[in-house]
Amino acid sequence: MRVFRGRASSVEADRDASRRLLSIAAGGEPAVRVWIPHRQVAFGRRDTRLEGYDRAREAARDRGLPPIERDVGGRAVAYDGETTLAFARAEPVADFRTGSTDRYERATAALERALRTLGLEPSRGEPDGSFCPGTHSLSETDASADGRRRKLVGIAQRVRADAALVAGVVLVANRTELASVLEAVYDALGVALDPATVGTVAGAGGPTDPETVRAAIEDALIGDASNTADVSVKHFGDGQ
User: Fold this and answer.
1) E-assigned strands of 117-238?
2) Residue 138 φ then ψ, to 5°
């Protein structure tokens, strides 16, 4: 298994680094990456087809988050460049028509285990009006919000003929800024969003340090692989 840590020097170089995971998996070796992406709003392909897409990109820029278009996932996700984590695990596939449900299940279970080691009790699903809505999400009761459930984790999947990538986002801290950015972006897109449903690990009573959360998720994703006897690690250069 290959494990990648840190982030590359630019948004585009960092995206190229993540794309490498699929190439590695296509060669028969699984790969894992958990990191803090550069500051950005990552739009999904469905967003690009909406009338308000250009306005949403401008709303992101106005708030200091460069807009990009990502390969995996649904609606827009905001990364603050400091506390928002991304994770990805790529695996070889023998038949692209099967296995998606199992891959989702294993990734979701791994994220649940990681969050529990951090003192949280995540539940599957998401509140109505969540960012990047999807079937595969994890939520938690926010200690600062009178028992309101808030979304912490979103999970998506990309499948090719020879490899599959299960990836997602984990919000660790900085809820106020992230909720404000997402509210402006989704409003421009004309997509329903309740900013009160944006949650963080810290807000749910977990650690505020993203490195603590990152390490827990990486351990869970590696530990959930079928073969962990031979793990090689590559570090990128900017310390994130």
Assistant:
1) 123-124, 137-141, 149-159, 163-171, 232-235
2) -125, 140
For the CA atoms of 130, 214, 240, 171, the dihedral, rounded to the nearest 10 degrees, stands at: 10
Q: Determine contact, residues 34/175, Cβ cutoff 8 Å.
A: no
User: What are 119's two structure tokens?
Assistant: 């003192």
The tokens 């400091």 sit on which residue? 82
**Tens-digit pLDDT profile for residues 12-50:** 999 999 889 999 999 999 999 999 999 999 999 999 999
Quick one: average pLDDT of 116-132?
95
Helices 210-223 and 100-117, interaxial angle, to 10°? Answer: 140
Q: Do 155 and 134 form a contact (C-beta atoms < 8 A)?
A: yes
The phi, psi pair for 162, rounded to 5°, reads -120, -5
Q: Burial code of 56-69, b = ≥16 C-beta within 10 A, e = fewer?
A: bbebbeebebebbe
Q: Which residues pair with 155 in a beta bridge?
A: 168
d(CA 195, CA 186): 10
Greater pLDDT, 146 or 105: 105
Instruction: State the Cα–Cα distance between residues 112 and 217, nearest whole angstrom.
Output: 9
Structural domains present in the chain: 2-235 (3.30.930.10)
- Please give the Cα distance from 139 to 121 (Å, whole number): 9
Distance (Å, whole) CA 8 – CA 237 = 6
Structure tokens that stand for 121 in this block: 């009790």
Q: What is the DSSP letter of 38?
A: P
